[in-house]
Structures are given as C-alpha cells and as structure tokens.
Predict the structure.
Amino acid sequence: MFQGWTFGQKIGAGFAATVLTSVVIAVLSVFALRSVVENKDRVIEVNAANLLEAQKLDVHSEEISASIRGYLLIKDERRLDDIHNSRTAFQSAVGRLRKQMGADEAGALDRIEQTEQAYGHGVDSIIKKRQTEQPIDQIAAEWNDTLVAKRRELASQVQALVDREKGRLESAKKAASELASSTTSLVLAIALAGVGMAVGLAFFLTSTLSRQIGTAIQHVQSSSSELQAAANQQASGAKEQATAMNEIGTTISELLATSRQIAQSAQRVAQIAAHTAAGAGAGDQTVQKAQEAVSGIRRQVDLIVNHMLDLGKKSQQIGGILEIINELAEQTNILSINASIEAAGAGEAGKRFGVVADEIRKLADRVAGSTKEIRGLIEEIRAAVNTTVMATESGSKAVDSGMRQFNDVAASFKEIGTQVETTTEAAEEIELSTKQQSTAVEQVNLAISNVAQATKEMEASSMQTMQTATQLTNLSQELARLIQAQRA
C-alpha cells in the first residue's frame, strides 16, 4: 500500500509520524514535568512553609522572652505591646501550622500551645509583680525558677517541631529529586526512542523518495529533452511563421494599395460611365432628332418624286401637244406651200397672199424648229426627270437605308445606354465591393499584424520555453547527481 502513495503523501506521513512522536514525547514530558513541579510545589508550599512557620514559632518565643527581659530591666510600657504582638503572632503561626499539618502533628501543636499558654501565664504574673514595684531580685529569682524552665521546654518543643519539619523537607526534596531524575531518564529514553524512530523513518522515506525522485527525474530528463526539442522546433517554426507573416503583411499592404487604386479607378470608371450614359442619352436624343429630320427628308423626297412624276406626265402631255403643234406646223407648212403655189398661180393678185403664205411657211418652219427644240428640251426634261426620279428613288432608298441605320443607331444608343447603366451599376458595385475589400484587407492587415505580434511573442515564449527546458534539464541533472550522492 505504501508503494502506491504519492510524494506528498509520503512526506505527509513522515511529517505526521514525526509530529505524532513529538506530541507523544511532549505529552509524556509535560506529564513528568508536571509531576516534578507538583512535588516541588508541594515541597515549597507545604514542607518549606511548615518549616518556616515552625521557625517563626521559635522567633516569636525569643521575641516574647526578649521583650519580657527588656520590660523587667527598664519597665518600658512599649515592651508590653511587643509582648502582646509576639504572643498574637505565635498563636497565629500555631493556627497556620494546625491548618497545614496533618493529624499526626496535632498533638505536638497542642503541647506547644499548652506550654506557650503556661509560659504566658507566667509572663503575665511576672509583669504584674513588676508593676507592683516588687523588688527586682525576687522577680529575677521567680523568672529563673519558673519561666526559664518553661521557656526551655517551649523552645525544646518548637525545636523538635522544626527538626521534624526539616526532616520531612529533606525527605520531600529527596523524593522530588528522585522523581525528577527518573522523569529525566524517562523523557531522555522517550526522546532517544523518538529520535531513533525519526531517523529510521527518515532513512526509509529518504530511500523510498530517492527511488521515486530518481524515476521522476528520469521522466523529467526525457520530458525536458523532448520539451527542448519541441521548443527548438517551435522556435524555428515561429521564426518561419514570423517571416511568412511579414511577407503576408507586405503582400496585404500591396493588396490594400492595389484595392484602393482599383476603388479609385472604379470610381473614375463610374464617373466616366455616368458621363458616357449622359452622352449616350444626348446621342440618343440627337439620333431621334436626326431620325425625325430624315423622316422629314423622306417625306420631302416622296413629294419631289411625286412632283417629278407629275412633271414627267406633264412633259408627256406637252410632248403630245408638241406633236399636235408639229403636225399643225407641218400642215401649216404644207398649206403655206400650197398657198404659195396657188398664189403663184394667181399672179399679181396672189402675190400678197404668197407673201403671207411665205410668212406663214416661215412661221411654220420656225414653229417646227421651235417644236423640235421644245421636243429636245422636253426629251432632256424627260431624261432629267427620269434621272431625277431614279436619283430620287435612290435617295429614297438611301433615306430608307439611313432610316434603318438611324434606327439601328438609335437601338445601339439605347443598348449603349443600357450597357452604360449596367456598367455604371457594375462600376458602383465594384467601387463598393472594392471599398469593402479595402476595409476587409485593412482588417486582415490588422489581424496579420496581430498574428505577427503574437508570432513574435510565441517566438519569444518558445525561446523562454527552450531556456526553461534547458534549466529543467540542468536541474534534473543536478537532482540526479544529488540522488546518486545520497545513494552512495
């Protein structure tokens, strides 16, 4: 069961055993010392006090005797007070001794008290005789005959009490010394047993804990080596990560600048698209106006074509009329020729008519010539009308083609306007997205900075961890050397 205990439990068990041993030693020592102290106290408080009180009896009896002699010699009234006080003190000492002593000493105290009372009666008798002016020689003779013997008897009884109390005090001292000696020996034996027990327990705990600590040190050494290797690898990784984070930070900064340029470009594109949309709208309006103008030209061309057709018809009608006029001119010419012939045939009477016929013939010739010229002009007019009609038709076709092109241009302008609106919206969305991207890139840049800072801190922590692992390895080696020294 002890093998499964932890280091702390073993230390606690050893400390508890040491404390328990110390408590047992302390309890036994206290008990022994208390017995010794009680004996000493009893010796001091009882035996020594009884001896002191017994010696006080002797002193008080001497004081009574001295006071009586003084009174007998000089008859000083103050000596009577001293006698009374000494007797009172003597009785008080007897009373205290009676309380402190046992029943075996009651008889001796009774005899001392009786002797003191008899001595006191003798003293009172002597004092009265001295007060009656009886001769001093008689008083001295009575003193020597009666009081000296009683005084010696009282002193002998008190001395016997003092001797008995001295014997008891010496016996008590001897018993207390023997008890103290035996108690000291017992405490010393218990202390030696506790020390031996503590030494054995310490040796057992030291050997057990040395093995446990040695095993733990081996694990610590292997773990510290692994920790040092991991710290080295972590430090290398942290350095690489810091370098990568710096490169990423540089790339993010460039990306941030690029996104800002894109945002500015998108804003300019949006502005240009807005201007283009405005221009496309203006162009659409211009095309619509041009389309309306071309429509007007088409209508005018159609009117011109109609007029030219009418003119062709009129020229044809004029041609028909000219044919009639030409026929009339030819008929007139024929008639004038016939008239001339008739006028020539008529002679003088027909000369005037011949002149008229000749003039009519000349007029018919001029009419025929004019008719020819008019016919040429009419032909030219017809050709011009036909050319004009054909050109007008070509112009109409061109106008139709222009109208279609204008329609296509108008549709293109509308499509351009729609595309420009789409482009503007896309540019605005690109600008907004680029701004959001710039914000996100700034946040990413800030996060990268924080990660770079954390990487630097992790690198510093890795270096500190590596130093700690190195110190732990050195410490485990020191502990291993200490354990091996202890084992040796």
